[in-house]
């Protein structure tokens, strides 16, 4: 999780604001409620006064600061990191869309409002939420929509050409290619006591007939005791182990009892969260499917893993079928790794042009709503790099060493 106010080193001179550009900024601020933000954050009265005051230096400073703060909130979200519970997304929008360059271009072209509007997420679901905000009938409905517009801004503005997205409150995983959802699978997500975090690791491959290396928390929950009391029963379930007590390391071999089932999506991340199959198929029949230790169990795992192997690893259906039938652990590496977004939207499109509210499984909405009553995250602090020292030119011919001196001047 990055700092709320990163420090950016840049060559920066205060730009000049024309009355037309400043007025366009003011006009955008006055309608910024349509974007799920709050005009009060950007002090429109002070900006209006600066436009009328005929004080160019003051206008340049105030308008620049206001633009950068507003652009930060539009691009990265208003919500401070402390209110983003279990959010570990990485977002490269800061590198891809540096605000100083956008500001310079907008002032030169007279496109301040258009440039700000361009910072909105490009996914059509965001546009549905934005439209729904205008139609919200109650303050609570409006707040819920704002929370989820914010969550879109915490993510990369463009999710990419191909990706997998699991929306935890929806208990669904979707495969997206070329902007089209090509597969949808029911998902089992983390229990309230072991919630699934929000993150976006890169998927690098699909593993069929995987081994399962048990995390310490699950060893402590029961299998460690089973190994100590009844090792034969543990072996019958496919477990092998080394060490004992605090040094106990446990692996479950591939097979019908393996907790990962027939496949595991390879997603490198420090939280050890990944998509996988499960032998407990009945869990997919429940409406609310929060049963896991944090990983995401995936319905119709053979279909999911076969799609991954054929479309993204370049394998034939026959190769995939043979690997499954062999019972051996096989990895199909993806030609081009792609992101898996483990997201948390509690208001989503309903498929009819409107939106629907989902249960806030982990109670993550309230901290975001509470943050709306406080100042939002600040814009990046911009500093000018220290220029290199100027080395004076020395006329060596004029240098004379006299007796009794060190020869150093």
Question: What do these coordinates show?
Answer:
- This protein folds into two domains: 7-152 and 361-383, no CATH class; 159-197 and 199-211 and 254-343, L,D-transpeptidase catalytic domain-like.
- Helix content is 34%, strand content 19%.
- The protein is built from 13 helices and 16 strands.
- Strand 14 (347-349) and strand 15 (355-357) form a beta hairpin.
- Helix 1 packs antiparallel against helix 2 (44-53).
- Residues 395-409 have low confidence and may be disordered.
- Keywords: Cell shape, Cell wall biogenesis/degradation, Peptidoglycan synthesis, Transferase.
- This is L,D-TPase catalytic domain-containing protein.
- The active site is at residues 276, 295.
- One of its GO terms (molecular function) is transferase activity.
Mean pLDDT: 90
Care to count the β-strands? Answer: 16
Uncertain regions spanning at least 5 consecutive residues: 395-409
What sequence of helices (H) and strands (E) makes up the elements? EHHHHHHHHEEEEEHHEEEEEEHHEEEHE
Describe the secondary-structure layout.
Blueprint: E1 7-9, H1 19-30, H2 44-53, H3 56-76, H4 93-96, H5 99-109, H6 112-117, H7 124-135, H8 139-153, E2 162-167, E3 172-177, E4 180-190, E5 202-208, E6 212-213, H9 216-229, H10 231-236, E7 239-242, E8 249-252, E9 263-267, E10 275-276, E11 290-292, E12 296-298, H11 301-312, H12 317-326, E13 330-343, E14 347-349, E15 355-357, H13 365-371, E16 381-383
Parallel strand pairs: 1-16, 2-13, 4-11, 10-12
Antiparallel strand pairs: 2-3, 3-4, 4-12, 5-9, 5-13, 6-8, 7-8, 14-15
